[in-house]
Specification:
CATH topology of the largest domain: Nucleotidyltransferase, domain 5
Strand order of the largest sheet: 3-2-1-4-5
Number of domains: 3
Structural class: alpha/beta
Largest sheet: 5 strands, mixed
Radius of gyration: 32 Å
Number of helices: 11
CATH architecture of the largest domain: 2-Layer Sandwich
CATH superfamily of the largest domain: Ribonuclease H-like superfamily/Ribonuclease H
Distance between the termini: 78 Å
Strand content: 5-15%
Length: 308
């Protein structure tokens, strides 16, 4: 017997109890432990609708003005599935690009209801025994972190190996990127010259790891330009943490978007990377910058310097 059938049978038994045994509604209500208000509510429904009126009705309101709209849900699901964004990052995107106001806690509740609140294992927070204090240089150009990301043959993207050179400003997070087929000092020098012409401010110091692509030839080239070159301590990639983190963003948001398109031309690869660079610098909100883009942070810092 279904739950609805049990409900109907139980409530009809109330009416029969009054009719055949007590002939008194109050006594029957005391016997079954229900209120007279509840008895008459169900009795009146029975007179109007018959046995079908004795089933519990949905308590959902007819109008829910605060219910999240379907189009908002679709955007939240898309950002979660395609970019693995958390509630805070989704909130930034919805506010900036769609003028949708919703709190991170509200987004989390939606993701939890949809059973999407847990990220894939490779995207989750990794606890560390030792926590490192986050730092940031106060002015654009004080420190430029430079690193090379080695790209294995990527299924659906390339049949050859590539090296992605990346330079990121410590203060603003503005990035310059370029693809090369080899990581050599010659390419490192070519990249840093390219990056310095693209950045809208003077660079005072460049920080790299101790890789052979940043050897003596590269080192003296930087010094000849009047820029200090700093090597981080061996086996401490956290000291170049901002550029390392930006490479992880590339994996999560850029390389996954190729969707099976094979690119084996360095020039075409750099065109796609330049599009991503422009989006990253001018449009993508950053959680570490309070939802601002790198160029918005640059304008903010330059304004504070000029009016400080």
């Amino acid at each position: 017997m279904s739950n609805q059938e049990r409900q109907i049978k139980m409530r009809i038994s109330w009416f029969n109890h009054v009719k055949e045994i007590t002939h008194n509604v109050a006594k029957t209500c005391r016997y079954y432990g229900i209120s007279r208000t509840a008895y008459y509510r169900w009795y009146n429904r029975y007179l109007k609708e018959g046995a079908s009126g004795l089933v519990d009705r949905s308590k959902r309101p007819l109008h829910s003005p605060k219910t999240t709209k379907t189009e908002v849900l679709e955007k939240i699901i898309y950002l979660r599935q395609h970019y693995h964004f958390g509630p805070a990052k989704i909130q930034m995107y919805l506010d900036r690009y769609h003028e949708i106001k919703i709190t991170p806690s509200g987004i989390y509740r939606i993701l939890k209801r949809l059973k999407m609140s847990r990220l894939p294992s490779n995207q989750r927070y990794q606890p560390r025994k030792e926590r490192f204090k986050r730092y940031e240089k106060p002015l654009p150009g004080h420190y430029l972190q430079v690193d090379v990301k080695f790209l294995e043959r990527i299924p659906g993207i390339s049949h050859r190996r590539y090296h992605q050179y990346t330079a990121i400003d410590d203060c603003t997070r503005i990035r310059i990127m370029r693809i090369y087929e080899r990581a050599t000092q010659k390419n490192s020098i070519q990249f840093i010259d390219y990056a310095l012409t693209k950045l809208p401010f003077r660079v005072h110091a460049i920080q790299t790891d101790n890789g052979p692509e940043f050897g003596q030839q590269f080192h003296w080239h930087i010094l000849d330009k009047g820029i200090n070159h700093i090597y981080i301590k061996p086996a401490t990639p956290r000291l170049n943490g901002k550029v390392e983190r930006s490479h992880r963003i590339d994996e999560e948001e850029f390389y996954r978007m190729f969707k099976g398109k094979v690119i084996d031309d360095t020039g075409l690869f750099n065109e796609r990377l330049k599009e991503w660079e422009d989006y990253y610098n001018y449009q993508r909100p950053h959680g570490s910058l309070g939802g601002k883009t790198p160029y918005e942070r640059l304008k903010e810092r330059l304004y504070s310097v000029c009016n400080g």
